[in-house]
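Quick question: what would this complex look like in 3D?
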Amino acid sequence: DTGVSQDPRHKITKRGQNVTFRCDPISEHNRLYWYRQTLGQGPEFLTYFQNEAQLEKSRLLSDRFSAERPKGSFSTLEIQRTEQGDSAMYLCASSLRRGTGRTDTQYFGPGTRLTVL
Amino acid sequence: DAKTTQPPSMDCAEGRAANLPCNHSTISGNEYVYWYRQIHSQGPQYIIHGLKNNETNEMASLIITEDRKSSTLILPHATLRDTAVYYCIVNGALINTGTASKLTFGTGTRLQVTL
């Protein structure tokens, strides 16, 4: 257990429905990342937050995806009008950015597996 | 980010050392080498990272060549629980500017530990 939790662990939904996932990072971590992993592939970066600010979004993050981190603690990832191609594992990671000159190590949660029927 | 090359799969007998190689010939001076592993259906687990010097922790050792173009992750006494996909990642964060260290995963090495 890394200290990063995600909820739910599994979600099955019908095409066209909206879904929302939650990530709770390690408490003192100021950076939070979202990744997506499809079968047989490594995780792919989606977006990241430093505190409450969303600082970068991947081209993979279509307009149907939105992420928030309102108070700089937990984060939510919402997918609107789900499509079968959204079926994947959605992973959250957090890290502590201490300042320039240092790298920050990301610790991953267990993921939320989404199946769109 | 620099690209990494890993063998797609390896086998190791339980109790023996597992040596997982990684090539990163285009690595630049401020890029770290990170290793993660992923056991089936779980999130990636951080193992170790390094810049220039060899590193060791309770999980593994990381040997980085002097020219930094390749590295080897060593699991000294592999167990069945070490069966996983191992990812070698070069972290392209621009450390001095504070850019996020988003990780670029490849397809990794599938390590199978057998009795």
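Answer marked as accepted. The first strand of chain A starts at residue 5 and ends at 7.
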